Design the sequence.
């Protein structure tokens, strides 16, 4: 979804800036950068024993969703900047409904672990706060180039999260669990819920 939006916005980027190249740069830097950050946090966790693997994964998911939500905020702010107030309102409502499913993804890794409830506040701020920042940026300094860059960074972050979730699931329940009926049913149900909530987003 983020890549599709990025490609659409890339067509509006002035030729010299090469919109597709910006997508590739944002995607690769985000994906590799997150792996570097995750590796550093894991090393720090081994030294300080402060954060368990499940909580680290939850923050990774929240960060990935947060960067993507920055792009959504740009869309809201951009509509406002163009005077499309009705569209801006519909985007707010649509993204709000659509992001309910993202909240489930953020807390899923930690629901069966012991963690401080304050982490829920921080997870919410990491995942949702960028929407506000993106809205302000889009309303007062919107450009297609920034939209493409933020959406590409968000897509790279989501790819990294998907890889980490798959690896985490394989470690926790065994690689065979990924091919089970329950995993398939959960995957299909998640796609259906995402599709239905996406119908509320009018761009």
Sequence:
């Amino acid at each position: 979804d983020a890549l599709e939006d990025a490609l659409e916005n890339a067509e509006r980027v002035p030729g010299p800036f090469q919109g597709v190249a910006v997508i590739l740069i944002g995607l690769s830097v985000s994906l590799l950068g997150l792996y570097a950050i995750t590796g550093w946090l894991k090393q720090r966790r081994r030294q300080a024993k402060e954060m368990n693997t499940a909580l680290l994964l939850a923050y990774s998911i929240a960060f990935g969703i947060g960067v993507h939500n920055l792009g959504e905020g740009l869309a809201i702010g951009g509509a406002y900047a163009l005077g499309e107030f009705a569209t801006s309102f519909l985007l707010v409502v649509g993204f709000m409904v659509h992001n309910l499913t993202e909240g489930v993804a953020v807390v899923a890794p930690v629901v069966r672990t012991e963690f401080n409830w304050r982490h829920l506040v921080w997870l919410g701020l990491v995942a949702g706060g960028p929407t506000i920042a993106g809205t302000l940026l889009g309303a007062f300094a919107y450009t297609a180039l920034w939209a493409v860059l933020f959406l590409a960074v968000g897509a790279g972050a989501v790819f990294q999260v998907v890889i980490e979730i798959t690896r985490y699931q394989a470690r926790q329940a065994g690689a065979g669990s990924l091919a089970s009926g329950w995993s398939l049913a959960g995957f299909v149900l998640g796609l259906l819920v995402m599709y239905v909530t996406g119908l509320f987003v009018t761009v």
